[in-house]
Amino acid sequence: MTVELTPEIKKIQETVVGMYSEHPWPSHRDADEEMGWRLKCLGVRPEHYQGKNVLELGCGTGEYALWYAMKGAAHVTGVDLSDGSLALARQRKKEAGLDHAEFIKMDILNCDLPDNHFDYSYSVGVLHHTGDPLRGFKHLVRVTKPGGVVIVSLYNSYSRRILRCKQTFCKWVGGDDLDKRVACGERFFGGTMRKLDKRYHGVNTKQIAYDIFGFPHESLHSASEVMGWFDRTGVEYIGAFAPLRIRDYFYAFQQPEYARFRATFEGFPVMRAVSDLMTKLARRLGPKEGSVPPFPRPGELSMFMSQAMWIAFGLRFNCFTMAGIKRR
């Protein structure tokens, strides 16, 4: 059932969609660098999505949706409102010859998709731009079958704080003019831009500036808050990226997929050095193969300690991801 959006949320939606239509994000991203290690940390196995009906709410330019299509999903549906982003996603689908992927223009806050339809549903880095992320998350759970996987990724209220100070300055300088905000970010925070440019291997330079400094709206969220969303919607936690228990980091850095993910630390040498050290420690201290996942639900202290660690690396890890199984 379609529910009328408030004027405030409509305004947020119009400006966000307009910005990402004009400046689709990203113009290029190698999803294969990220996905192997990320899914291991989330407790997700290939059988969760291979041969299954997969949904992405807020698919943007389609890199993740097409990754699942290439990795064995039976059918992948990507939903977004940005015409510019969808055009790029459809072009990539055609170039890759992935006929079992489709991209649909649809409002994710009024998601007109059937209940209990998808085996595997996710939303990465989108709901925090909507003005009502919980509403979007409820749709994500609603359309997923009982026993299916639900994954959500959001800006973190711990790690995003340092970057938020820079963004606030740019908003103060540029006001409602998004181009002026971006110009301010490029002028005063060149180091931030260079780090992120290296992370994306120099192929998304201008798109990064708009995604970081030109976005019209965002909200920040904690792991404890999202765990509450899981409880309210009948989703049972199975894992997080980055992990939400200290001991789970030792499992994560045991995994061979980290070697591929390491390329995303280009531009972040300190973080790469710390991660490499963790890899060495994990070989000695990590759990035995088969002991995890799924991961036990983290306690409040574990979530606080993990998120506090993310503050130092917030520019690279300003989003966090949580996965669960829909139980009802």
Can you describe what's shown?
By secondary structure, the protein is of the alpha/beta class. The chain folds into 2 domains: 7-158 and 217-326, Rossmann fold (3-Layer(aba) Sandwich); 161-213, no CATH class. Helix content is 47%, strand content 15%. It is built from 14 helices and 7 strands. The protein has helices at residues 7-22, 31-42, 63-70, 83-96, 133-142, 161-174, 178-188, 190-199, 205-213, 223-233, 246-252, 258-261, 269-285, 300-310; strands at residues 53-57, 75-80, 101-105, 118-124, 144-155, 235-241, 319-326. It has a 7-stranded mixed sheet with strand order 3-2-1-4-5-7-6, with helices on both faces. Strand 2, helix 4 and strand 3 (101-105) form a beta-alpha-beta unit.
Structural class, from secondary structure content? alpha/beta
Span from first to last CA?
20 Å
Overall average residue pLDDT = 92
* Percent in helix: 40-55%
Order of helices and strands: HHEHEHEEHEHHHHHEHHHHE
Low-confidence stretches are: none
Determine the CATH superfamily of the largest domain.
Vaccinia Virus protein VP39
Fraction in beta strands: 15-25%
CATH topology of the largest domain: Rossmann fold
Can you list the strand order of the major beta sheet?
3-2-1-4-5-7-6
Counted up, domains total 2
Number of strands: 7
Radius of gyration, in angstroms, nearest whole number:
19 Å
Output the number of helix runs: 14
Shape: globular
